[in-house]
Amino acid sequence: MKDISVIIPVYNTPLDKLEKCIESVLKLKNKCDIEVLIIDDGSKDYIKKFFKEKFIGEVVYQYKKNGGVSSARNMGLNIATGKFVCFVDADDIIVEDAFADLEKTEDYQMILFDMAVLENNKKDIWKVLKCNRGIVGKKEILIELLTSNRMNSPCAKLFSNECIQKNKIRFDEKMVTGEDMNFVMDFLVSTSKYYYTGENAYCYQREESSRIARIKRYPDVYYDNMCCLNNRQASIIEKYKMEEYRENFVEDQINGAYNYLSDLMMLHLFTDTRKKRVSKDIKELDCDTATMSKKTLIKYEIIRKRQWLVMYCLAFIRMLYLKVK
Questions:
Q1: What is the pLDDT of residues 246-280, one digit of tens each?
Q2: Homologous superfamily (CATH) for 4-206
Q3: How far apart are CA 239 and CA 143, in angstroms?
């Protein structure tokens, strides 16, 4: 059995980025026994041609009809043979010293690493947990999952392949947003042994444009997925008795709804039906405005009172800021 199955979905990735990604992954062979699964999600012919000429015998190349990143990852899970599964996006890279101490942590069901986030030519190290390296509990991870966006990604983690297959955990191919967080939550509720290394293992290229593109293509499904994920998080708060984090969760809902509406405005998709639906959902939230942050309170009142002109002006200013940032 291989130590790690590295699953890399590929869809029309620029070859320079793709080559850097694969080269970074192959360096792991110096430390552990890996298999590299390239899942081509219906790319143009240049991707297939690239793998006929490069990395022959070093990677497993599988072509499939285009179905999205979740279906590509699921195909990888269906053929993975490693003890652990690792997900890598085709334009990201694995840090050279990653997984060096794997033998010390191989008895755990999930091993967590920090990641470097690259955005607008700036690099930031994301500490995914606010604790020292060592054994961590389920609730500790769930708290981070509910209170920040640093735990959402399936990348920078090693998942027990046995647990994935035994519990039939897969990415939801119908979701256009939140599918990563949903997968991580599915894994967490089905397992119990976790280890946090406190070491950076992954360089993630963050792009705002990918989120905007999904809203533009699937505006209503995007919001459906947001609501589904909110309901899932609410049930976790109740199940694991985490009431002290409910206010933070509610603020995240308000901020998410506000950003969604702002994006709809800038994309000229701001219909009466959509704004009424979101406004109704926000009004029905059980929230305490007295403890809410000022910034979130302003957003809450704008949506609740349907002050769309104010929102439009703020959204336009934000758009200009992002262009010159």
A1: 999 999 999 999 999 999 999 999 999 999 999 99
A2: Spore Coat Polysaccharide Biosynthesis Protein SpsA; Chain A (3.90.550.10)
A3: 13
Locate 314 and state its tokens: 């703020």
Whole-angstrom distance, CA of residue 100 vs CA of residue 98: 6
CA distances from 188 to 31, 107, 180, 192 (A): 27, 16, 13, 7
Q: What count of residues does the chain have?
A: 325
- Amino acid letter for position 205: Q
Q: Tell me which of 70-84, 236-250, 309-323 is least confident.
A: 309-323
Model confidence pLDDT, tens digit, residues 136-166: 999 999 999 998 888 999 999 999 999 999 9
- Judge contact between 282 and 304, C-beta under 8 A: yes
Rounded to two decimals, the pTM is 0.93
Which residue from 77, 75, 55, 79 is spatially nearest to 11, judged by alpha carbons?
A: 75
Where along the chain do its domains lie?
A: 4-206, 209-324
Q: How far apart are CA 114 and CA 291, in angstroms?
A: 31
DSSP state of 243: G
